[in-house]
Specification:
Layout lengths: L3 H17 L10 E5 L5 E6 L8 H9 L7 E6 L11 H7 L4 E6 L9 H7 L3 E3 L4 H17 L3 E9 L17 H12 L3 E5 H7 L20 E5 L18 E5 L5 H9 L3 E4 L9 H10 L4 E4 L3 H9 L5 E7 L24 E9 L2 E8 L1
Parallel strand pairs: 3-4, 4-5, 6-11, 6-12, 7-8, 7-11, 8-9, 9-10
Antiparallel strand pairs: 1-2, 1-3, 12-14, 13-14
Helix pairs in contact: 3-4
This protein binds NADP nicotinamide-adenine-dinucleotide phosphate.
Amino acid sequence: MATTAEHAAMRRAIALARSALGSTNPNPAVGAVVLDSDGAVAGEGRTQRAGDNHAEIEALDAAGERARGGVLVSTLEPCRHEGRTGACTEAIVRAGISRVVYAVGDPDPDAGGGAEELRAAGLDVEADVLADEALVDLAPWLLATRRRRPHVTWKYAATLDGRTAAADGTSRWITGPESRRDVHRLRAQSDAVLVGIGTVLADDTSLTVRDWPAPDLPAGRQPLRVVVDGKARTPLSSLILDDAAPTLVAVGAMADERRVKALADAGAEIVELPGPDGRVDLGALLAALFDRSARLLLVEGGARLASSFVRERLVDRIVGYHAPALLGAGPPVLADAGIPTIGAAVRLEICDVTQLGADVRITSEVR
Ligand SMILES: NC(=O)c1ccc[n+]([C@@H]2O[C@H](COP(=O)([O-])OP(=O)(O)OC[C@H]3O[C@@H](n4cnc5c(N)ncnc54)[C@H](OP(=O)(O)O)[C@@H]3O)[C@@H](O)[C@H]2O)c1
């Protein structure tokens, strides 16, 4: 049975892991805490950029000699494979840790199995400590690893009657400043952020992380920006092509070659992924993003693109910001998603409801 100090250390490890979200791809964001033999915190760590230290190594380094006879608490089972950074299990044994407590097992065939190795080395090991809390952030990475495509969160902002703009097309500031700031948190915690060309043309969005201090994140880190642009219509003057972050433009078979070249000359990476009707093949796009290390993808709309994601059952989590306003007309949050009858409705499970200023944020998952 985990002690009170170990539970507290796990809560801290979960917070450390959360602060690393979006900066560790393709690795999972993990947090770790070392308790000394008296149960006091001796060291903390979180996953660094790929190729750099895992959370356990950071925590062991910080603890130094105080790790001897102590407990290592980690949100994920320590890895046992060499990889680019050396096995965490070996470092744990070398540091003289006597007990390991972790939340979630590592399903990776190479990295997993660390718990058994530690037990074989004579350590006391306890699994599943606060696993449900750790899974809130780890489950998307686990799903991405299993399906070999990024976990997809679709985010929208709407009035209570589900409109994203007024009948005349005006849409600025539907939601309040707290919600808008929260969207920057979502971006910061994602590896890639994606919009349709309709949104680029209407809003000239820059899609960067701005209003989120994220003091713990490496300076200047921005998620990959992705435009789904079948005909390569992204204007060369678009903010999304500025040098604040890398940009990938996915085009279809009907994209004009000269426009594609101009976008590439403007610094965008171009991938041609022909789907039906000159559109972009979204499944192929997700595979391409996975190959580029993206595990957590944020889809920011608009309605037509979101409906394709829903139609193709490619949405895993939905974050809706609902403003206390009514419009009665104007574009809906979702276009036709190919659902003809109530029996075919995409059923969701609500995981969180939070009031942000005057708005309500509803987070749900597709089961
Ligand atoms: N409130 C919110 O949360 C929110 C968020 C974002 C946007 N918006 C608003 O939504 C509006 C834009 O939405 P929209 O529906 O017009 O455009 P959109 O969803 O941003 O982009 C749709 C376009 O993407 C291209 N596309 C390529 N492959 C596709 C595929 N597989 N599936 C779907 N689309 C594909 C198509 O253009 P091609 O045929 O040229 O490829 C399609 O017309 C704007 O007014 C914006 O302000 C609101």
